[in-house]
Specification:
By secondary structure, the chain is α/β, with parallel strands linked by helices. It is built from six helices and seven strands, in the order H-E-H-E-H-H-E-E-E-E-H-H-E. Helices cover 37% and strands 20% of the residues.
Length: 214
């Protein structure tokens, strides 16, 4: 099934319409999708197109630290649901919605070191639009099931499976894995996570293309 929207201009107009209807309240839009679907690229482009009133807030900052994953025995499947601080992510989204008179600081994620970095993203009072992006925004299980009510809209970023895998292998090799290891991770670990995420597609308000033209 093709995506509902395949151009950035339509998405920008949709967010601006949400903003107008919000009556001055901050708007939070979520973009989800499988690993390699293009959701980060889309979220960054959307925030840039909306201008200084928008900020990009990735869920990836809530990856558990590698040392914690080692202690829990989960490092070999990093990226799965239980390798994130889901409750912390929900708490941050609630703060983003409710605390609009001062900056709310959020963690980012640096792929070069494969670790989250605390407090690198500032959601400031002037940010009337927050573009949240991550794998598990529409998963119904606790605590992720609380995320949907904190979003004004949720979009599912769609991409061809072969293209997603190609992007993932490229990403993993650029960050130090051999081609063999990168391919195995993309098909096995990322593949398992993708099956969970694809099962949430029907909960989205809109399906968007992960290959929107520049």
């Amino acid at each position: 099934m093709p995506p509902d929207v395949a151009d950035l201009r339509t998405l920008v107009a949709r967010v601006r319409s949400l903003r107008e209807r919000a009556g001055g309240r901050r708007v939070v839009v979520g973009i989800t999708g499988s690993p390699g679907a293009g959701k980060t690229t889309l979220a960054v482009r959307l925030a840039d197109a909306l201008g200084p009133e928008a900020v990009h807030l990735p869920m990836d900052g809530f990856h558990l630290a590698n040392a914690t994953l080692d202690r829990l025995g989960r490092h070999d499947r990093k990226g799965a649901l239980d390798t994130f601080d889901g409750w912390g992510f929900v708490a941050l989204l609630r703060r983003v919605r409710e605390e609009t008179d001062h900056p709310v600081y959020a963690p980012s994620f640096h792929r070069a070191v494969d670790e989250p970095v605390a407090g690198e993203i500032a959601v400031a009072p002037e940010h009337g639009v927050v573009v949240v992006e991550g794998n598990y925004l529409l998963v119904p299980d606790e605590p992720w099931g609380r995320v949907r009510d904190l979003l004004d809209e949720a979009w599912f970023c769609d991409a061809d499976g072969d293209e997603r895998e190609r992007r993932l292998v490229d990403r993993h090799t650029r960050h130090g894995r051999t081609l063999e290891a990168a391919t195995a991770w993309a098909t096995e670990v990322d593949g398992r996570n993708a099956r969970v995420i694809e099962g949430t597609r029907a909960r989205a308000d809109l399906v968007v293309s992960g290959a929107i033209p520049a």
